[in-house]
């Protein structure tokens, strides 16, 4: 009998508890992962704080999981061998049969399962995953640096893709996703305008250090009209502000899974073919496309490591805005 530690959510709104549990065993098609690092994402806060409905309970949160294959279940994919480094992202399983799966939109599957929400995640020493949904990762890279790429990077990349060929891009909320996507966008030759919380000069300086051509408070307009705006902060008030900042025909893309209510705004701000998009989840193809691009762009993640047992402190630092970049748990 082998025990494995995990930080467990017993009920929404409660602190996570450290639990020594039986090491999970992989079932058919699954792999057991020995966790090297797991990023702490704002979506984890939404789950833990009860803002997302009906999580699996008890639940091990965490969906930015980096680790190595420690055991293979029956019929696990043949390209996975013991010791292979992989990442476990948010998308844990899809049905493969619904209209969305058949149309190449598995991110919208009606029966999808999500790591760290409806399936146990990586705030643990070990976790299991469907072998078809893990992503190959560089064997020699720093696992702490890789972890934020599995959600902040992937969702950020999908959000950026909705901006099309926009040249001037505004980013509202300069945290984990933004600091990765700023580097990708600069690699692609785009201009980044970073919007931060009023008074947060550290975040503005951070954005400038990553190549933003302008950084300032979200309460003021940018110095240039934007082609697109990406919103990573869960603040509904930013939607009308972003609409006013984009040009005619411009796009506003919300990359979050949860947001406070959007206030009413005059139709005039939306008129002239401006549009609002939301991003939901990700596809496996997003992962296969994103990681080579991140490597080509030389993306460097800004991380703060925490021991696994300090998960509650890491979550509180994220909740209160004390982080620059991303928190990462290390078992």
What does this structure look like?
There is one protein chain. The longest helix is centred in the C-terminal third of the chain and has 14 residues, at 284-297. This protein is of the alpha/beta class and 331 residues long. The strands form 4 sheets. Strands 3, 4, 5, 8, 9, 16 and 17 form a 7-stranded mixed β-sheet that branches. Strands 12-11-10-13-14-15 form a 6-stranded parallel β-sheet, sandwiched between helices. It is built from 10 helices and 17 strands. Helix 4 (152-161) packs across helix 5.
What's the short story on this structure?
This protein has 331 residues and is an alpha/beta fold.
- Strand coverage percent: 25-35%
- Average pLDDT rating: 96
Low-confidence stretches: none
CATH fold node name of the largest domain? Quinone Oxidoreductase, Chain A, domain 1
- The domain count comes to 2
Question: What is the CATH architecture descriptor of the largest domain?
Answer: Alpha-Beta Complex
CATH classification class of the largest domain? Alpha Beta
- Rg over alpha carbons: 19 Å
Distance between the termini: 20 Å
Helix content: 10-25%
List the helices and strands and how they pair.
Blueprint: E1 3-8, E2 17-22, E3 30-40, H1 42-48, E4 65-72, E5 85-88, E6 91-93, H2 99-102, E7 113-114, E8 126-130, E9 135-136, H3 143-146, H4 152-161, E10 168-172, H5 176-187, E11 191-196, H6 201-209, E12 214-217, E13 226-231, H7 238-245, E14 246-254, H8 267-270, E15 275-278, H9 284-297, E16 303-307, H10 311-319, E17 326-330
Parallel strand pairs: 10-11, 10-13, 11-12, 13-14, 14-15, 16-17
Antiparallel strand pairs: 1-2, 3-4, 3-8, 3-17, 4-5, 5-9, 6-7
Helix pairs in contact: 4-5, 5-9
């Amino acid at each position: 009998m082998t025990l494995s530690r995990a930080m467990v959510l017993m009920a929404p709104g409660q602190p996570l508890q450290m639990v020594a549990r039986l090491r999970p065993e992989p079932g058919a098609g699954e792999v057991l992962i020995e966790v090297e690092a797991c990023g702490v994402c704002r979506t984890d806060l939404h789950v833990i704080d009860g803002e997302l409905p009906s999580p699996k309970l008890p639940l091990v949160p965490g969906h930015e999981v980096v680790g190595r294959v420690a055991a293979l279940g029956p019929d696990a994919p043949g390209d996975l061998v013991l010791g292979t480094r992989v990442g476990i992202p948010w998308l844990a399983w899809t049905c493969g049969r619904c209209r969305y799966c058949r149309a190449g939109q598995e991110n919208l599957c009606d029966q999808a399962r999500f790591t760290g929400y409806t399936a146990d995640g990586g705030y643990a020493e070990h976790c299991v995953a469907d072998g078809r949904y893990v992503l190959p990762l560089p064997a020699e890279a720093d696992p702490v640096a890789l972890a934020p790429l599995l959600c902040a990077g992937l969702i950020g990349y999908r959000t950026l893709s909705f901006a099309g060929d926009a040249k001037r891009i505004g980013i509202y909320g300069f945290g984990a996703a933004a600091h990765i996507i700023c580097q990708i966008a600069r690699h692609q030759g785009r201009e980044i305008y970073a919007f931060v919380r009023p008074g947060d000069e550290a975040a503005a300086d951070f954005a400038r250090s990553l190549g933003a051509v302008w950084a300032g408070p979200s309460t003021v307009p940018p110095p240039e009209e934007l082609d697109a705006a990406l919103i990573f902060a869960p603040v509904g008030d930013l939607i009308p502000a972003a609409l006013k900042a984009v040009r005619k025909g411009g796009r506003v893309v919300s990359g979050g899974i949860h947001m406070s209510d959007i206030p009413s705004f005059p139709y005039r701000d939306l008129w002239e073919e401006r549009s609002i998009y939301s991003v939901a989840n990700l596809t496996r193809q997003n992962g296969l496309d994103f990681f080579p691009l991140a490597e080509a762009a030389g993306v460097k993640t800004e991380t703060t490591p925490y021991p696994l047992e300090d998960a509650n402190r890491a979550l509180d630092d994220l909740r209160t805005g004390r982080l620059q970049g991303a928190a990462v748990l290390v078992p």
